[in-house]
Amino acid sequence: MRKYLIPLLAFLCACTEKVDLQSRSDYHDYLAVEATLTDRPEDPQQVILSRSISYFHNEPQPMVSGASVKVNDVIFSEKEAGIYEAPEGYSCEFGVEYKLRISLPDGSGYEAEATMPESGFRMDAIDYAYAGGKTMDMDSLWTVAVWGSEKDIDSYYLLTHAVNGEYQPLQMCKIAPDLFFNSNEVVGFPIEPLLQSERLRKQYGDCFKFLETGDVITLEIWTMEKGYFDYLLSLTMNSVSIPLFTPQPANVPTNIRGKHVLGYFAVCPIARASVTVEDPFRPYFKRMFPFL
Q1: Model confidence over 206-241: pLDDT tens digits?
Q2: What backbone phi and psi angles, to 5 degrees, belong to 109?
Q3: How many folded domains does the chain comprise?
Q4: 189 beta partners
Q5: Which pLDDT does position 88 carry in this prediction?
Q6: What does the alpha-carbon distance between residue 264 and residue 225 come to, in Å, rounded to a whole number?
Q7: Are 133 and 190 members of one domain?
Q8: Residues of 141-152 as b/e, b for ≥16 C-beta within 10 angstroms?
Q9: Do residues 12 and 66 share a domain?
Q10: Are 1 and 43 in contact (CB under 8 A)?
């Protein structure tokens, strides 16, 4: 799992129990679980454990060390505090059921199952085009277009992008049921905006930098099962805090069994493609109009 999800999903978690934040004494200590595995062996596959924090707590939530974490028969080793990683090259496969087991040093245990859905989108290539200068909070704007096809199956997606390997924060990703292509070939569809903002660059990193020659843009389309889609949708609907979800949002689903636990265990296939910037001000998609 790439690190762009780590700072957010470690506390993008809750359960179906209603939690009312009225005073310090109302706060419950929950285990927060980020466990989203993929079919990409080149990516680290991680499970991240932390403790939820009170609305009134101004420090980062504590990470949970010393746990035993297994997915099926694979042991996830603790690489740094609270971050448990599978052996290098590990990935998940379509149609296989995966069972997550977490045992904490205090003896408490947690379990969840997930099966990877069929990838709903085939991505062949992407390209970019300059879309204009300063508007509202944007200093510059580009458009990322995609070539590929969508399968004729019911799918749920998360769209995200990176610049030079730095991904946008989760609250700025898009989630959607299907991509409205209806099993058709996709040719140069402008699917993702890519903006430059100095304010956001200082806050989140070079994903929001001004594009320069040699920069690498990466687009990803994640296929999710409906339960994970509903989980992410509920998080965005419950989000009222900065950083997102630092207090415990109410009525957000989870598939993890155990006492006082937040989060979701999911297994997702990823469609991914990259393009290297040649001219950041190029106004047309070179792949579509090679003569320009």
Answers
A1: 999 999 999 999 999 999 999 999 998 887 664 433
A2: -130, 155
A3: 2
A4: 146
A5: 96
A6: 12
A7: yes
A8: bbbbbbbbebbe
A9: yes
A10: yes
